[in-house]
Design goal:
The chain has 426 residues and is α+β, with helices and mostly antiparallel strands. It has 13 helices and 23 strands. The protein has two domains: 314 residues, BirA Bifunctional Protein, domain 2; 97 residues, Anticodon-binding domain (Rossmann fold), CATH 3.40.50. Helices cover 33% and strands 29% of the residues. Strands 3, 7, 8, 9, 10, 11, 12, 13 and 16 form a nine-stranded mixed sheet that branches. The chain has a five-stranded mixed sheet with strand order 20-19-21-22-23, with helices on both faces. β14 and β15 form a beta hairpin. α1 packs across α9 and α2 packs antiparallel against α6. The two termini are 24 Å apart.
Length: 426
């Protein structure tokens, strides 16, 4: 992609209404633009990152045996009344009417719709276990949207729902999703904790949250420094135990001591049990021909929120430091004097074509700006590797390879090409 052709409106200054680093950098890097409170346009650069995360989520969900569906964002009132959540959800549920004055809502989640789908189409235990998922836009009318896409009103989410004949089968599905979420976040290259949590408005017997650790995290969590023990402060409050009283004390699991961390919730998994199936009469016939109420699990992961969480965990004073798997582009070729010297322009274009043919995602900065502006923009948007072609190429046929983390090396075009070939083979 030629830099001069991509829609990439970067900003020099930090917008005043952006409170946290991820919001600031997503605006400055030209990834998003605000439409209204809590609702954003995703621009090409931001959408590339969003799609990469979406693809990783989809690959791991498919590998787990889950099947993808797509449910409507607009949902009828009648389904929500069956579970008594039409009133229970309160003003967070955005209610609308069609031209016939029938009541609907914009879906903040899809338990009612998926249960209705399954109760009308799954009749036997032989069709179970079943895990259906979707990647879709949600809308929750937050009372105070903030932090950019981290707590917006409209967001992209993967939500999945398992249906099981008994509690043991539900537990198997739940543990499978837990492992799947671990694989997703590890592929994204993020440091995280799995945290015991409150089930909240979704309900159910047990739930766990996946938190990306970051200084600007909204949630306070107590974690062991020597084990996987972690618990959300909200759950501690519900149980009457003050999180501050745990600071520096032995971990309840007997391994290590407690540390207080900040986390960004990016995923939440629930064992719902029978609460929705009971309310909506979702039954199947068991192996004896008797009607049995389904057991359900619910598993959500915030795809758009993961973009912000990745930035909160990976940035410096210059801009974004993307984990390799989700960088919008892998390489940026900075051609100094592209518009003035045909030899530089040809070398940069040839190298761009060479790397592209190897399968790299490459940008070529063909703008008339000088080296300083080009490098600052590249560091801001977080391209992992910069290839600099300029005066040294004219004088000694050498180009510079500069990594986003500061490491650099100089060599001929052939040398640098060999480095990229070996890296791609790995």
């Amino acid at each position: 992609m030629l830099w001069s052709k991509v829609f990439l409106p970067t900003l020099k200054d930090t917008p005043q209404d952006a409170e946290v680093i991820s919001h600031q950098l997503m605006l400055r890097a030209g990834m998003i633009r605000k439409v209204t409170s809590g609702i954003y346009n995703w621009l090409p650069l931001g959408l590339r990152v969003l799609k990469k995360i979406e693809n990783i989520v989809r690959e791991e969900m498919d590998a787990s045996g889950a099947q993808e569906v797509l449910m409507p964002m607009v949902q009828p009132k009648e389904l929500w009344e069956e579970t008594q959540r039409w009133k229970k959800m309160g003003p967070e549920l955005l209610r609308i009417q069609d031209r016939h004055e029938r009541d609907f809502c914009l879906g903040p989640t899809h338990e009612e719709v998926i249960t209705d789908l399954v109760r009308n189409n799954v009749k036997s235990y032989k069709e179970l276990p079943l895990n259906l998922y979707q990647i879709q836009t949600k809308f929750r009318d937050e009372v105070r949207p903030r932090y950019g896409v981290m707590r917006g009103r409209e967001f992209l989410m993967k939500d999945s729902y398992s249906f099981n004949i008994n509690e043991d089968s539900l537990n198997e599905s739940y543990l499978l999703m837990k492992e799947t979420y671990k694989k997703i976040i590890e592929r994204l290259g993020l440091e995280y904790k799995i945290v015991k949590a409150d089930s909240g408005a979704i309900g159910g017997d047990a739930s766990e949250e996946f938190h990306v650790l970051a200084e600007n995290g909204e949630d306070t969590i107590a974690v062991s420094d020597s084990s996987e023990f972690a618990i959300n402060s909200e759950l501690l409050l519900n149980e009457g135990e003050d999180i501050n009283s745990l600071q520096g004390k032995p971990s309840p699991d007997g391994k290590g001591t407690i540390e207080i961390k900040k986390g960004i919730e990016v995923g939440h998994i629930f064992q719902l049990g029978k609460i929705y199936a009971d309310a909506m009469k979702a039954n199947v016939l068991d192996n004896e021909g008797k009607s049995q109420t389904l057991y359900m699990g619910c598993y959500g992961i915030g795809i758009s929120r993961l973009v912000a969480a990745a930035i909160e965990q990976n940035h410096d004073e210059k801009g974004i430091l993307w984990p390799e798997a989700i960088a919008p582009y892998e390489v940026n070729i900075i051609a100094i004097g592209f518009d003035k010297d045909q030899k530089i322009a040809k070398a940069a274009t040839d190298f761009y074509n060479e790397l592209s043919s190897m399968g790299y995602e490459v940008m070529l900065d063909d703008r008339k700006d000088g080296y300083g502006i080009k490098m600052k923009d590249s560091e801001l948007i977080g391209v992992p590797i910069n290839v600099i072609i300029g005066r040294q190429y004219l004088e000694s046929n050498e180009i510079e390879l500069k990594h986003r983390d500061g490491l650099s090396s100089i060599g001929t075009v052939e040398d640098i090409t060999t480095i990229f070939e070996h890296y791609k083979e790995k």
